[in-house]
Amino acid sequence: MAVSFRSSGDPPFRNGAEPSIARPDAETRRHGPAVLQILPRLDQGGVERGTVEVAAALTEAGWRAVVASAGGRLVHEIERVGGRHVTLPLASKNPAIIMANVQRLVSVIVREDIDIVHARSRAPAWSAMLAARRTSRHFVTTFHGAYSARSALKRRYNSVMARGERVIAISRFIAVHAAERYAIAPDRIRVIERGVDLDLFNPDRVAAPRIIQLAKAWRLDDGKPVVMMPARVTELKGHLVLVDALARLGRQDLHCLFIGAGRGGYRKVVERRIAERGLTGVCRFIDHCADMPAAYMLADVVVSASIRPEGFGRVIAEGLAMGRPVIATDHGGAGEVVEHCVTGWLVPPGDAQALALTLREALALDPGQRHALADRAIAAIGGRFSRALMTRRTIAVYEEVLGHGP
Question: Does pLDDT of 19 surpass 70?
């Protein structure tokens, strides 16, 4: 289906018909529009990092940035960039807590004199939408994934992300999915890809001691190539596909680093597969890395092997921004980030043999080929997927619903 997503929309409107709650009068109103971003928690992750980045851009532009979540490691980042954090039980999917959160958010909206409520996840989005209606504030959502909907109830649960005045999609893949699955009019959808912090993810700004420190901490042998998979240890990320690809590659003279925390028993499943394939001396798990730019500099190849389509793939963009050879699966938003055989490689999802062959090709690049690939990748990310572009486009959506934009 060919879908055209307009960059400008209809005049802003208010959601719902519930009585509005009055704003403070003009004399007491604080300066600058205010945006309340709402998400479950502020731990590490693409959604969380994007929330912090938008908060920073808002304060730099003279707006007021408020974030509501259940807390987490990135709360101090919100405060550091000049935003305000409000701790509420927004990570809960309990219907009673979701409904109780409505009044909690109404109180926040009134106290902070919020203009726009921006929901970034489904469970808190229900509370956010109802609170926005009760206070007659604008409601915006970000569609982060192709949410599964195996029942009518789950489809309704997901549908809250389609109810914003503007629905931000993190890739064209997600925009098409949202338009088709939830009948969102294309003129309400705005495609804003995730952005990479090009000051942070810049190979020229990573000092050698940082790289050496990580290499020592991880006990990496000099001269051995490093295959890196930065991803949470969950089934959809495709760890087993990479293990099987390494077995087909048939090399023991390399390191494979799985960087990311795991949940449940899946990590044990992966560890068993590693042992069965005779790769115990090759593969290792690193639960957390505080210096990912330096980690990428250690990688000879970065792999994203997701077996289900992902909305965008921040790891892919970060790896390319660092000039690393990147292999990703050819579905979801990955094909919008990687240009096959130009900036990296795309392989069929779940195809260990294709991944093995591509790993062999990537590891065989000579220095000149690696340098040329890096130049193309860095230029592509800088032109299309920077943090500055992402935050500028997000603020343009806010201006649009406030009636300041097109």
Answer: no
